[in-house]
């Protein structure tokens, strides 16, 4: 994976793309790229918004996967998810139980590394409605990026 200085040459469109990948299951350094762009002079609020929108769109792909698999679809992707669920069964069961108990507001936790993906997929699996899904995932991911952006701007 290229380092953040190389990726920063892509600017805000690159940040959008990298954040979208990071919102799915691809581990890429979206926070590092956000910090590099702000260090390079990008407006912190604009960069935060771009990263948040990209990351939420990536999360929507996982949400749709969860919906699709819950309805019995998915083909090879569904089989991959079933294997992952067997391997991580207790964690996924806990996440699904939290979503059933707390509902869509639990999706604010989608910002967390690794566990956040489980929250997003489980949101689709348990049938969280699309609008609350987008609202709470955006809140969680947006706050994470805002923290990174503010920390970077304060360090300048």
From TrEMBL:
<feature type="domain" description="VTT">
    <location>
        <begin position="28"/>
        <end position="151"/>
    </location>
</feature>
<dbReference type="InterPro" id="IPR051311">
    <property type="entry name" value="DedA_domain"/>
</dbReference>
<protein>
    <submittedName>
        <fullName>Membrane protein</fullName>
    </submittedName>
</protein>
<dbReference type="InterPro" id="IPR032816">
    <property type="entry name" value="VTT_dom"/>
</dbReference>
<dbReference type="Pfam" id="PF09335">
    <property type="entry name" value="VTT_dom"/>
</dbReference>
